[in-house]
């Protein structure tokens, strides 16, 4: 295995097609990570964030890459580190299960395509009886869900998120009742993560704040991204209402409690 030099990241971006948003975050060097290849032709690739999230791409017959994955998995156990592996390929998913059989769990998720025409043609709610604020350090310090630990996990630091990411929240008085943030972001994509206080659900807050997130993406030439667990019918239906369509299934493998 070889570590891909950053000057080759642009070549990788042109060849991989659609991949998880964090992959582009690595390639655009928005978050810290690394890319490994089986050879200089980049037939098989492994993407790794510093927090222990991985993605495999290319030829699943690459024994070098499979061995690298096994080594990383064993090290994650020995060092009590996170291991979360994304696969968009049925061939890779079969290979991963074969090599890590009995040691790993799996979760199936959907990734959607964004239909801007469907989004623009939907009926929107222009206002709510709550204060709408862009997230800064003060909101993070008094957050509903997305605290400093969250940004350290996915962005490396809160300061990196505040500099390169974005998010919004709704206030009821001094209380934050809904949040939408970019869990990952690159120069082209921004993946949304949403939470709403259980006492305020059913009021359209998630839809409203997601629209604000999407509008911000469109103004800033970003493509909004929506992923969810296949069992999460609430997220599935909200995504489709917001113009996300053509769900495609992929697999996430993990060894411990999963947070996405």
UniProtKB/TrEMBL annotation:
It is an enzyme of class 2 (transferase). Keywords: Acyltransferase, Transferase. Gene3D superfamilies: 3.40.630.30. GO terms for molecular function: acyltransferase activity. InterPro entries: Acyl_CoA_acyltransferase, GNAT_acetyltra_YdfB-like, GNAT_dom. Its EC number is 2.3.1.-. Residues 130-260 form the N-acetyltransferase domain. It comes from the Bacteria. This is GNAT family N-acetyltransferase. The lineage of its organism: Bacteria, Bacillati, Bacillota, Bacilli, Bacillales.
